[in-house]
Amino acid sequence: MSKMKWRMVALIAAALCASGARAGEVTLQYLGAFRAAEIPYGGSALSYCDEGNSGLGSLYTYRAGMSSGMYEYDLPAPLAWTARDPSILPKANVLQGPVSSVGPHGLEYLPGMGEQTSGKLYFGSSGGSGSSPTHGYMDLDFTNIQGAWELSGVDDRRVGHYVFEVPESWRTNVGGKPLVTGFGWAPYGKGPDLYAYDPFPAQGVLPATKLLEYDSSHTMTGWDTADAWEAGAWVQVESDSAVLIAGKKVIDGVPRAQILFYHPDDFVSVLGGGNVYDPQPYKAISVEDKMFGSGSTITGMAYDRAGNVLYAVDPIDSYWGLAIHAWQVVNDLAVPHPGDANQDDKVDWDDYTILADHCGLVGVAGFADGGWVVGNFNDDDVVDEDDYGVWQANYGYDGESVPEPALLLLLGAGGALLVAAKRRRAGIGGGAPAVAWLVAIALLAAAVSGPARAEDYDWVTPMRHVHADYQDRTVPAIQGTIAQFGDSITVTQAYFEPLRYAHTNVSPQDQVKLDWLQSYIYQPCWGWYGGAYGSTGGTTVSWGLENMDTWLSGLNPEVALIMWGTNDLYQGPAPPRYTEYLSFIVQKCKDNGTVPILFTIPPSHSWDATAHVAAAREVAATERIPLIDYYDEIVTRRPHNPPVDTWDGADPMWDGYSGYEVPTLIACDGIHPSNWSAGQRNFDEQEGLNKNGFTLRNYLTLQKLYDVYEEVLSQPAPPPLPPVGQITYDLQYVGEGKFGFTFTIHGNDFQEKAFGADVTIEITDGGGIDVAASTFLEPFLSHAEVLIAAEDMYHIEAGTGLGSAYEQVDLAYVVTDGDLHGSGTVARDGADYPVDVDVSLPEFGDANLDGCVDGLDYNTWSLHYLEAAGWTEGDYNGDAIADGLDYNVWSLNYQVGCAGAAVPEPATLGLFAAGALLVLRRRRRA
């Protein structure tokens, strides 16, 4: 064997030892998701059937709760989503159902066996007595239900929540039994239990064989009493297989959706006389980041053995129904994921380091023969830039997810340059001398502190740009179109429509606003009520999100009033999902050119609304939109302190009243705003605004609409925004003829999003870059991808990190004594924007950077005299204060750079000096 072959064997062995891997392990590659909207709260059972849907394959599930029953639905291609927005997921179509059935927890399809001539659905459910009948089967049309029967020698409280197939190649180990069942839930299971069984009864019971059973003294590693294991599948890639168990695992007190991996060899050991509690999962992956629902559990799983696709159920909520996630099952040892050199189920910077260390190596084994452990990810015999391309294309793969597009943008030309440099060093090609490299590998999610209240933000300029888009639209843009989007608090004609009529106790200022609205509004909008116009009782933010595109395209409103959340308190998504959906709705409005006005929901008698209220404030602040804080107005006007006073019409102090006719702000149901008759169309502070909840909302709506009109709708279109991703710079003098330039990236879109940068800054005129003094700045400091630092070049590849969001951010601080030119791209939320910036060293004393040291610069210095300052405030010597020393710098360079200017006469300098003294005396007197 050649030395290279021996080296390959040694490297493979070392990689296996380092990863703890053994032959026969599999892993999952995420494909995406689709949803079954007609099946809310379903998925307690799931099975793939290859003969379903006319042989195209289908999924079976059971819906619990209202309209319970069995369903069959088809399989749309899963969408590899990038935004966790369920409205974008493709929908599965119902093929059968609902059909009343036995209400199974576990479900598995098997083709006809023995005397059977057709395939069956084998089901399981958990019992409660210890020996209840739990398992049976039915036909694929949910008829001919047989059973249920109990499992021989097995506690019925440990079975039934998952039922899945034993691969035919493994059945001889358990006497031909084709199915496995189990459950894992305290106080009975101390982890997931597994029992192979024969679905056809012998003397009224089902023969069973124990494969895994934990007890009070022997638990699954890390077991918690709140764990629950409810789904399973036995997957197989060629001769390698794994038993997957999914459900809820509590980690650091937080329930997380997780998938456990067990090796079938461990069950062989049990059958050979080992302890039934000995097997432990060799791997666990948390998948809560994929879930559209709470992210805390998986309730069902199914496996397409022919296609090697694993499906898992994610219950979103009562509106969206189920999300079905799909993973490709792959072998993670014999065929590692391309780019994963160290075989840790991740393609990351550790693998890049391996590739870089071996770059230029020739005579390497191909990928399939083990060359991947040194970075050879294709089938040639050299580690080169082609392998870097494979690594880059797969960067971010972690055994369960695909890379985000924004991450790939962070991996630009620097890697290819590095590979090229290594090839030159290895003698593979010629070229310029290699440059020095520094690789920083941390891609951490930066925690962003919560935004301040929306009132603290300036929404005027962002909304002027949104409205400019509305005015420029090719579809008819009708002035005064106002839409009302929401639930029963919006659809009622006690809201908004009263503003078309005269009111009492109206101040002169408010009468102007009322007259304006009645004349400005597009008159058909007074009748925009009901589902076709975006408001229906009982709805949640989920309903709003799914239909928003239809309403915006059909109504094309200039302004949208938005309030969902009251129903979300008990049946819709909670924050942070509620926050996400509300943000999506707002963004859709802005994309349409519609100015959104967001409301906080009113307080509720039965549910705590504060989290949803905080979410609406957060969205308004982050998205830079107007907010009507309805909640705050109610609790401020009527503090909740019975028996003295309260906004809550359901409180016992209001027992003498009923319905909406109660003299406080929330009706007697404790949910809806009141409509106290004396306060209807009455802007009196006491009788109207403090006692009629709908009048208060109408009043607040009028005030905000008029504000929006004055500040946005009536204003001319603003000048176009600067380019997205624009780079600007600030400077300071650092001594020895050197200047420090702080480069800042601007979003220029009033949005907070992630940034990436691939920018090269080069010397264009004399001098060099002080590499030691230059640095990345927060938040890039801990998220730098590649830094090429040389005397005449500074190459920046960096990102703000996953989950980070900024409107603008400082990128780097570069120290130089020569002119600079910067060019490259800025990635803004996954989109590339070209950047180009020229930097010239200023003349000493030139505060306004116009190239001429003159009286304007003196004025700048004088206005900041004895203040903390930078260069543009008159600090010319770099001591961070504008003082007499800086005046001296200015005076010595007076008229430098000014066309046709003469050197100042001494008398002229004396006049400037006298002026400086007068400024000094004035400031001391102050």
Give a concise summary.
The protein is α+β, with helices and mostly antiparallel strands.
Which radius of gyration do the C-alpha atoms yield?
A: 34 Å
Major sheet details? 6 strands, antiparallel
Mean pLDDT over the full residue set: 82
Envelope shape = flat
Tally of individual helices: 19
Task: Tally the beta strands.
Answer: 36
Structural class: alpha+beta
Helix content: 10-25%
Determine the N-to-C terminus distance. Answer: 89 Å
Could you name the ranges where pLDDT drops below 50 across 5 or more consecutive residues? Answer: 1-23, 399-457, 901-926
Tell me the strand order in the biggest sheet.
23-32-33-30-35-36
Strand content: 15-25%
What features would you describe in this structure?
With 926 residues, this protein is an alpha+beta fold. A six-stranded antiparallel beta sheet has the order 23-32-33-30-35-36, covered by helices on one side. A five-stranded mixed beta sheet has the order 6-7-8-9-14, with no helix packed on it. The protein has a five-stranded antiparallel beta sheet with strand order 12-16-17-18-19, with no helix packed on it. Strand 17 (240-251) and strand 18 form a beta hairpin. The longest helix has 21 residues, at 693-713. The chain is flat. It starts with a helix and ends with a helix.
